[in-house]
Structure formats: structure tokens, C-alpha cells
Write a structure and sequence with these properties.
This protein is α/β, with parallel strands linked by helices and about 260 residues long. The chain folds into 2 domains: about 10-200, 2-enoyl-CoA Hydratase, Chain A, domain 1 (Alpha-Beta Complex); about 205-250, Lyase 2-enoyl-coa Hydratase, Chain  A, domain 2, CATH 1.10.12.10. The protein has 11 helices and 9 strands. A 6-stranded mixed sheet has the order 1-2-3-4-6-9, sandwiched between helices. It has a 3-stranded mixed sheet with strand order 5-7-8. It starts with 8 loop residues before the first strand and ends in a 10-residue tail after the last helix. The model has no long low-confidence stretch (mean pLDDT about 95). The chain binds 3-methylmercaptopropionate-CoA (MMPA-CoA) (1HE). 3-methylmercaptopropionate-CoA (MMPA-CoA) binds near residues 107, 134 and 141. This is Crotonase/enoyl-CoA hydratase family protein.
Length: about 260
């Protein structure tokens, strides 16, 4: 059984789904080191019984980002190490054993947006808003936003958020690519579970290709990217599960596109 080593993270398994909850509601789920390391501990425990992970926040907000009370007296080397600790944990989320869905509401700011960006699918409810207050706090993003966020919303929008303190609301966020799904307030988890169940029903190799290989293809040059795609395509179609799924379709047993 997957268990948490800290009250700052709650975890619940529902069949083959794992629901992780950031749990410092009184501090708006500000991420202190204890919370980030507890999150890492949970992601490390994800095994092949789990087909999809959901990350949500307890209370009024998804996350207020880095716990600023811990920022105080770090020197440069400690600052580097702290940022790299975040990078390690965000990488573990991005390259987890299965896809990860973020269910967002309220503030998704700073490090909270970095956690959301490391996930594969983002569902936002109507209360969600996005910001990078690092610009106004006199610091810089340190949890991977400069690598992941421009891939979602573009470099110009991220630069604007940090230079001017621009806040995007839920609708704007969905339009510019922060979240792929926008739902009514309070409906995020239900939608997240619906999507997670669809993800969990895919062939494991397809999910692996999407979460582990596609990012490498995107970061490659064209020749390498196309070769990686061909290798992945050949491997995927050779798997027994793929052959069975194709047979099911050809013999009329599989759903058509758009059927639930
Ligand atoms: C915090 C934090 C925090 C709240 N660190 N304690 N992130 C920020 O700059 C965002 C700062 N937070 C806010 O702007 C607001 O708190 C919110 C818009 C997110 C929520 O507002 P609200 O009215 O619901 O809550 P609140 O009354 O402001 O906060 C409740 C408590 O949480 C209060 O503490 P209390 O002891 O007075 O009750 C706040 O001080 C505390 N709190 N946010 C510490 N962030 C890997 S590098 C990433 C770099 C960053 O993430 S920088 C961005 C930091």
C-alpha cells in the first residue's frame, strides 16, 4: 500500500488510480521542503498496479508556490541545490511510471504552476488563476518553469507574466494552453477521474511512449526525432496488446472514434 511520510501530502488509492493531495490548506499549499520531499516519496512508490496519478490541492487553492518563509538565508550554492531538488522531483512527476493529471483550482502560482506544468494533463475549474509572482518578489523560477511553461503557453506569455505580474484567469488559461480542460467550480476532481480512467484503459506502451518518448522527440532535431518516432511506432505495433486492439476494431468489437 502506498503511504505518505508527511501530513503535508495525503494519498488515496482508488482501484488503479492514485490521488495525491497537497495538504497545507492553512498556508494555501505553499510548498515547503517537507511537502516537496513527501511528494517525491509518493511518486517513488508508484508501481505497475497504478495506471494514472491525480494531483490536487486541499482547501481554497491548488498551491501558492514556494513557501517563502523558507527562502530567507540561503547562499548561492544552497540556492542551486534547492532548485535542483525541485528539478529532481518535477522530473519524477513528468517521467513517472504512469501519466499524471493535475486537477487545478484557485491559485496555481509560482512553484504551484511548476508542479502543474510537470503533469501531463491539466484540468482547471472556473476558480483557477495562474501567476508567476517570482518577478515581483525579486527572484526567478527555480522548479522547471522556464523549460516546461514556454512549451505550454509560449515564451512571450511567460515573459509577460514575470515582467508585469500578469494573472490569467481560468478561461484565459484554457485558451492559451495552461490547462486542456475547463470545468465548473468544484467539478475538477470528477473530470480528472473521468480522464484518468480513460488513460488507465490505454495500452501501457502507448502511455509510456507519450510520457517518456514524445518529450524526447520534441527536444530532438528533426532527423533524430523522426527516427525515434519510427522506432517507437514499430515497437508499439508489434506488442500483443496492440495486435489484439486492432483485431477488435477490424472485427467490429472496438469503439469508434467519439464513442465513450
Ligand atoms: C504563504 C504563501 C507562500 C500564502 N509562502 N506562506 N508565491 C507567492 O508569492 C504567492 C503568495 N501568496 C499569495 O499571493 C496569496 O496567499 C494567495 C493569492 C495564494 C492566496 O490568498 P489568500 O487570501 O487565500 O490567503 P492568504 O491570507 O494570503 O494566506 C494564508 C496564509 O498562507 C498566510 O499565513 P498566515 O500565517 O498569515 O495565516 C500566508 O502568509 C500564507 N502563505 N502563500 C509562505 N507562498 C521552486 S521555485 C518557485 C518560486 C515560487 O514559487 S515564488 C512564488 C511564491
Amino acid at each position: 500500500m502506498i503511504t505518505s511520510n508527511s501530513h503535508t501530502i495525503l494519498v488515496e488509492q482508488q482501484d488503479n488510480l492514485l490521488i495525491i493531495t497537497l495538504n497545507r490548506p492553512e498556508k494555501r499549499n505553499a510548498c515547503n521542503d517537507e511537502l516537496i520531499l513527501a511528494l517525491e516519496n509518493i511518486v517513488d512508490q508508484v508501481n505497475s498496479d497504478i495506471k494514472c496519478v491525480i494531483i490536487q490541492g486541499n482547501g481554497k487553492h491548488f498551491s501558492a508556490g514556494l513557501d517563502l518563509s523558507e527562502l530567507k538565508e540561503r547562499d548561492i550554492v544552497q540556492g542551486l541545490q534547492h532548485s535542483q531538488m525541485w528539478h529532481r522531483v518535477m522530473n519524477k512527476i513528468q517521467f513517472a511510471a504512469c501519466p499524471v493529471v493535475a486537477v487545478l483550482h484557485g491559485a496555481v502560482v509560482g512553484g504551484g504552476l511548476e508542479i502543474a506544468s510537470a503533469c501531463h494533463i491539466r484540468v482547471a475549474d472556473a476558480s483557477t488563476f495562474y501567476a508567476l509572482p517570482e518577478g515581483q518578489r525579486g527572484i526567478f523560477v527555480g522548479g522547471g518553469a522556464s523549460v516546461r511553461l514556454p512549451k505550454l503557453i509560449g515564451i512571450a506569455r511567460m515573459t509577460d507574466m514575470m515582467l508585469t505580474g500578469r494573472v490569467f484567469n481560468a478561461e484565459e488559461g484554457e485558451r492559451i494552453g495552461m490547462a486542456q480542460y475547463l470545468v465548473e467550480e468544484g467539478q475538477g476532481l470528477e473530470k480528472g477521474i473521468e480522464l484518468a480512467n480513460k488513460i488507465a484503459s490505454n495500452a501501457g506502451l502507448t502511455n509510456y511512449a507519450l510520457t517518456h518518448v514524445l518529450p524526447k522527440i520534441v527536444d530532438s532535431n528533426q532527423q533524430e526525432g523522426l527516427m525515434l518516432e519510427s522506432l517507437m511506432a514499430a515497437m508499439a505495433q508489434d506488442a500483443p496488446e496492440a495486435k489484439q486492439r486492432l483485431k477488435d476494431f477490424l472485427e467490429g468489437r472496438a469503439k469508434k472514434v467519439g464513442e465513450n
